[in-house]
Amino acid sequence: MTLTVAVRTLCAFTARRGDLDRRFTPAPSAQEGMAGHALVTGRRGADYQRELPLEGRHGELVVRGRADGFDPARRRLEEIKTHRGDLALMPDNQRALHWAQVKLYGALLCRERGHAELTLALVYLDIATQRETALEATFEAAELEAFLVEHCARFLAWARQEAAHRVARDAALEALGFPHAAFRPGQRELAEATYKAAATGRALLLEAPTGIGKTLGTLFPALKALPRRRLDRVFFLTAKTPGRRLALDALATLAGDGAEVSAMPLRVLELVARDKACEHPDKACHGEACPLARGFYDRLPAAREAAVRHARLDRERVREIALAHDVCPYYLAQELARWCDVVVGDYNYYFDAHAMLHALAREQEWRVAVLVDEAHNLVERGRGMYTAELDRAELLALKRHVPGALRRPLEALDRQWRALHADDEADAAYRVLDGPPTQWLGALQRLVQAIADHLAEAAAAGTPMADPALLAFMLDALQLVRLTERFGAHSLFDCHERPGRRGTRLSRLCCRNVLPAAFLAERFAAAHAAVLFSATLGPGAYYRDLLGLPADTPWQAVLSPFSAAQLTVRRSAHISTRYADRPASLTPIATLMAEQYRARPGNYLAFFSSHAYLEQVAGRFREHHPEVPVWCQQRRMDEAARQAFLDRFVADGRGIGFAVLGGAFAEGVDLPGERLIGAFVVTLGLPQVNPVTEQLRERLAALFGRGYDYAYLYPGVQKVVQAAGRVIRTPADRGVVHLIDDRFCRREVERLLPAWWRLDPGGG
C-alpha cells in the first residue's frame, strides 16, 4: 500500500516545536503572497526553475511537493516567504519550520538529480518594501537524506494508522444502513437528491419543509458517498449553534451510540468559536502569558494521539482531552480538523476570507462534500464576511492616548478623513463614493504598517498586551484594506456622516459587499459537491445569483409531509403594517390576537419587524387584555435569557411570546405539539427602506434586473415563512397562522408562500 504526504503536511506534523504564539503579526494576504512569489522568481535568471515538482519514497510513504525555485547554475534551492515588518521579530520555531521545509525539498532534489551537496536558501520578501532577505546554508546530500528519513520515520506510524482508519471507515460506511425503520415522508427524496449531487460532483439547492429530518436526510447519503465516490471529508456548516447540535445528534444516531470508535470508525469534530473555547480569556495567546500555549507543540502529539481514539469529538470531549494534556482546546480542535472525517461548524470556517477548512481542503487536495444547513442565511452572512468599516470616532479616541510613534500616521489619516468631509458640498448624511478614496486609503495603509510595527516591537520586548482598542482598530483597518484590493461591482464604498461634539463631523466609511457571489463562488468551486438546503430556499435563481453557484445548479423542492388540514392560514387584508400606518394598527392587531387566544387558549408566538413595533403592540395588548400572559424578546438577550423565553412554551402552557421576525426565535426553534399552537406574523418582513437598502436595490437591478425582488421581496417573505414554520413540526401537529398585512393578498407574495398552505381569501 502506498501512502502519500505533502511536504507541508509532513513538516506541520513533525517539525513544529515550542510555544503556541498567536500574538498579532502582520501577515500578507494570499494575493500578496502570490504576487510576492512572482516578484522574487521574476528577478531570477532565464535558467531559474520555478515551482519545481519533487517526489521521493521512504518505505511505503511517498513525499511530494513543489519547491519554490531552483538555480541549477548555483545549485541553490529557494523557499520563498513573504512577510511584513521586522524580520528579526519572527519566532524561532516558525523559522525552524521554514528550514525544515526547504531541507526536505533539498533531500528530494539530491535524490532526483544526484547532487552531492546543495545550497539552501530561505528568501524572505518584505511586502511593503519589496526587499529580499536571504538566509542560506550549504548541506551535504547525506545530511539532508538523514533529515528526510528521520521525519518520514516519525510520520510513517501515524500514516499507517490513518490509512487503516480510512479502510475501516469506508467499510463501515459501505455497510451503513438508515438508522430508522423507514424514511419520513419526503426524507427519501431529500436523501436521494443529496446522494446524486455527491455522486455527480455538483452543487444542489434543496428546499425541504421543516419537520422531515433534513439534517439526517442529508448526512446519511453524504456519508454513503464517502467510500463509493472516494471522498475524503464531509463539512456540515451551520448558521447557529442549534444546527450544530442537531448535526451532532444525527451523527450519533447514525453511528449507534456515537461515543467511541467501537460504535463506528468515523471521527466527528465540532468546531466552536475561539471565545467560547478559551480557558483563559484574561490572558494573551502566547507561551509567556497562557499556560496552555506554553510548550503547546511539544505536548500536541500526545493530545492528538489521545483524541483520535474517540469518534465523537464535540466541544466537551475536545476540552476534556486538551486539559488532560495541558494544551489549548481551541487550537487542538484546529489541529484535529486535519484528521477527522466529518467536521461540524459555523459557515465562517469554510466561507469567510480566512476560512480554515477551505484552506485545508485546498492544501491537502481533499475531495469534500459541503452540506450547508439553513442556507438562506448564507446571503446575509456572506455579505457580512466581506464587509468592513471604520469609524472616525474610534480614530479620535485613539489619538488621545496612543504612543508617540503612532501620532503622526494617525494625524495623517485624520487629515485625509477631514478632507473627505470638506469635499462633500451637499453635506449628505449618506453617500456612495466612486470607490475607495485613494489618498485616504494610502494614509490608512501607512497607519496599518505603523501599528503593526509597534505591536511587533512590543511583543518582542515582552511588554503587556497592547491596548485592545488599538488592536481592534488595526484588525478592522487591515480587513478593510484587503477588501479594497478586490473592490468591484460586487461592493459599494459608502460614507455615513453625523455631527459630533463641538461641531466635529464624524463619519463611518464602509467597504460594503452587495453580492457575496464574487467571493463565495471560489469556495463552491473548491468542493467536490455542495448541497444547500433550507425550508425557504426559493426562488432558485435568487440563490444561484447571490451565492455564486454555477448557472446550471439544479433547484429541487421536496414535497411537504404536512397537509393543508393541519394548518389554518388567515390573512388580514384590513390591516396595514406599513410604517406610516403602524399607530393605527396597534388596536386591531391586539384585538385579533385576543380573539384567536379566546377561541383556542394555548401557546402562541407573535413576530414583529422590530423591537420598537413589538413593544408598541405588546403595550397595547397588555393594556386591553391584561388577563392573557405575555412575555417579550428583549434586546441583546444572552443564551440563558433566550432559553428562559423558550421554557415558557410548555405543553399545558398559556400565553403569547412576542418576538422579532428574523431573530433568535423565528427559525431553528422546535416547539412541537401543544408547546406551540399558533403564530401571528405582523408585517411582510421587508427590509427597512433606507439609503443602504436602496443602494443594494439599485446595484442588484443593474446586475440582475430584479432589484426590488432581490433586495426586498424575497428576503422579506423568506422571514415570514421561516417564522410560520415554527407552528407545524410533526404530522400530528395542528395550528393556525395569522398573516397580518394587506400585502399578503398580493399575487406576487402568494406565489412565494408554501404550496401546501391553503390560503383564505384574505378577509377582515
CATH topology of the largest domain: Rossmann fold
Based on secondary structure, the structural category is: alpha/beta
**CATH homologous superfamily name of the largest domain?**
P-loop containing nucleotide triphosphate hydrolases
- Quickly name the level 1 CATH class of the largest domain: Alpha Beta
How is the main sheet built? 8 strands, parallel
Q: What coarse outline follows from CA principal-axis ratios?
A: globular
Q: Please tell me the overall pLDDT.
A: 92
CATH hierarchy: architecture of the largest domain: 3-Layer(aba) Sandwich
Helix content: 40-55%
Low-confidence stretches: 258-262
- Write down the domain tally: 4
**How are the strands of the biggest sheet laid out side by side?**
10-9-11-8-12-17-7-18
Task: Count all strands and give the number.
Answer: 24
The value of Rg in angstroms is: 29 Å
SS element count, helices? 26
Query: How far do the termini sit from each other?
Result: 74 Å
Our estimate of the beta-strand percent is: 15-25%
Q: What does this 3D model show about the protein?
A:
Residues 173-431 form the Helicase ATP-binding domain. This is ATP-dependent DNA helicase. Pfam families: DEAD_2, Helicase_C_2. It comes from Modicisalibacter tunisiensis. One of its GO terms (molecular function) is helicase activity. By secondary structure, the chain is an alpha/beta fold. The strands form four sheets. An eight-stranded parallel beta sheet has the order 10-9-11-8-12-17-7-18, sandwiched between helices. Strands 1, 2, 3, 4, 5 and 6 form a six-stranded mixed beta sheet that branches. It is globular, with a radius of gyration of 29 Å. The chain has four domains: 3-156, Lambda Exonuclease, Chain A (Alpha-Beta Complex); 179-384 and 517-557, Rossmann fold, CATH 3.40.50; 390-513; 564-750, Rossmann fold (3-Layer(aba) Sandwich). The protein is built from 26 helices and 24 strands. The model is unreliable at 258-262 (pLDDT under 50).
